[in-house]
């Protein structure tokens, strides 16, 4: 390949033969895939990115960037994002490149999810098959080496050309990306990217997106502090009346919505509509019914409920809180937080399984402690009031005249009458 360029973040020399350079890079890529390491003549920033991509499990042969959000959800996220307000500034700098030079302008959030794409229609159509679309994850973890994802990983503007992309599907393309920061806090807000056919690559493209990012940061500084709106989702499912709190706003939930959320909480990697249907309704269920419920639920919860697959993001729950407290040995606090079993009225098999798992976790920890005060609290709690072995242990641990012992014996008598009846 050609001699190294003076700027390690630039991929092409203005005088180089783009097609010949692409062929040489493809040979280097093939060698790297075969040997498990990049040849020495591959740029260091690219070689390091290839290593990260491999560790992330990206398959260079057939990988496609995952589409994390559907059109509606992506639109919601874009309109709420700080970079939404600086789109006119970015357009003013980059419009010539998108219209005249055959590029598309893409803007991502800090996680590498594409929130906005516009530009040359031919390029938009041609890149759709490789999932260069709004809602797709183009971080290195999602798509492998690419200018947008690598700019995030390095927190530096970078140009990626042809087979420098880790995934073969992207070898026809070149891209330049620059991170945009909150000018007051320095945190990365997202990336501005120009993508086009490899034959249109030019080192000036990187300078252009770098300048655009700088102008966007200047505009953000002029606009003042960025309001940070919490999208934290908090769930209360240890109750007969489930509810959620989204950024502090209370949302009442139906029993079915509570069950859907419990299932997604149990499967943090996400579930398809078909998988949720099977859990809720069995073989006779219809995914269209579940999709309608999830659509209603998303209107209540907003971006906290993701799609493709359906999953929860930025979530905490009373169920998880109890598990953490038990794991930390803070049993008194765990009993205070474990007010009731998980969705007591639900007959969904997986919810019943989760309910039993949490109940068994708390029950075993309390009984294992041998602490009379914890056993007493457990025996009078909603989840523990039918625990006959715990009541027997408590009665054996405390003196006959202790009120806790009297309560335990009364509990045993009540349970004996129930069993006899």
Architecture blueprint of SSEs:
Elements: H1 18-35, H2 44-55, H3 71-80, H4 87-100, E1 103-109, E2 114-119, H5 121-128, H6 140-143, H7 147-154, E3 158-161, E4 173-181, E5 188-197, H8 204-223, E6 233-236, E7 243-246, E8 249-252, H9 255-266, H10 273-281, H11 287-301, E9 305-306, E10 311-312, E11 315-317, H12 318-327, H13 331-337, H14 349-369, H15 372-380, H16 388-397, H17 403-420
Parallel strand pairs: 6-11
Antiparallel strand pairs: 1-2, 1-5, 3-4, 4-5, 6-7, 7-8, 9-10
In total, the number of strands is 11
Question: Could you name the ranges where pLDDT drops below 50 across 5 or more consecutive residues?
Answer: none
Briefly note the structural class of the backbone.
Answer: alpha+beta
| Fraction of residues in β-strands | 5-15%
SS element count, helices = 17
What percent of the residues sit in helical stretches (DSSP H or I)?
40-55%
| Mean pLDDT rating | 90
SSE string = HHHHEEHHHEEEHEEEHHHEEEHHHHHH
Oligomer: single chain
Q: How are the strands of the biggest sheet laid out side by side?
A: 2-1-5-4-3
Q: Gyration radius, to the nearest Å?
A: 28 Å
The major pleated sheet works out as: 5 strands, antiparallel
N/C terminus separation: 87 Å
Give the overall shape, derived from the CA principal axes.
Answer: elongated
């Amino acid at each position: 390949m050609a001699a190294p360029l003076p700027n390690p973040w630039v991929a092409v020399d203005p005088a180089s033969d783009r097609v010949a350079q692409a062929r040489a890079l493809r040979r280097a890529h093939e060698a790297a895939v075969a040997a498990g390491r990049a040849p020495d003549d591959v740029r260091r920033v690219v070689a390091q990115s290839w290593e990260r991509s491999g560790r992330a499990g990206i398959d260079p042969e057939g990988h496609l960037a995952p589409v994390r959000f559907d059109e509606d959800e992506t639109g919601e996220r874009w309109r709420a994002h700080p970079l939404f307000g600086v789109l006119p500034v970015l357009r003013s700098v980059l419009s010539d490149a998108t219209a005249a030079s055959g590029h598309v302008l893409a803007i991502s959030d800090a996680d590498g999810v594409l929130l906005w794409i516009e530009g040359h229609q031919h390029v938009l159509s041609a890149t759709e098959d490789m999932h260069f679309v709004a809602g797709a994850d183009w971080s290195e973890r999602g798509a492998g080496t690419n200018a947008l994802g690598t700019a995030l990983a390095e927190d530096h503007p970078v140009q990626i050309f042809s087979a420098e992309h880790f995934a073969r599907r992207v070898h026809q393309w070149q891209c330049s990306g620059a991170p945009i920061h909150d000018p007051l806090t320095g945190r990365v807000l997202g990336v501005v990217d120009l993508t086009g056919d490899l034959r249109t690559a030019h080192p000036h493209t990187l300078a252009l997106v770098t300048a655009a990012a700088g102008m966007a940061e200047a505009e953000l500084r002029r606009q003042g502090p960025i309001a940070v709106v919490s999208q934290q989702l908090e769930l209360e499912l240890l109750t007969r009346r489930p509810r959620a709190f989204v950024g502090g706003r209370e949302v009442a939930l139906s029993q079915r919505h509570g069950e859907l959320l419990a299932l997604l909480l149990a499967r943090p990697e996400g579930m398809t509509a078909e998988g949720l249907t099977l859990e809720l309704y069995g073989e006779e269920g219809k995914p269209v019914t579940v999709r309608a419920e999830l659509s209603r639920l998303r209107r209540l919860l907003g971006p906290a409920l993701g799609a493709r697959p359906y999953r929860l993001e930025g979530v905490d729950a009373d169920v998880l809180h109890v598990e953490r407290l038990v794991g930390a040995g803070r049993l008194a606090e765990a009993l205070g937080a474990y007010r009731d079993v998980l969705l007591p009225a639900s007959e969904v098999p997986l919810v019943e399984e989760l309910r039993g798992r949490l109940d068994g976790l708390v029950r075993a920890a309390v009984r294992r402690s041998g602490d009379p005060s914890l056993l007493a609290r457990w025996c009078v709690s909603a989840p523990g009031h039918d625990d006959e072995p715990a009541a027997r242990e408590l009665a054996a641990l405390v003196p006959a005249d202790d009120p806790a012992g009297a309560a335990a014996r009364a509990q045993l008598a009540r349970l004996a009458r129930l069993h006899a009846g």
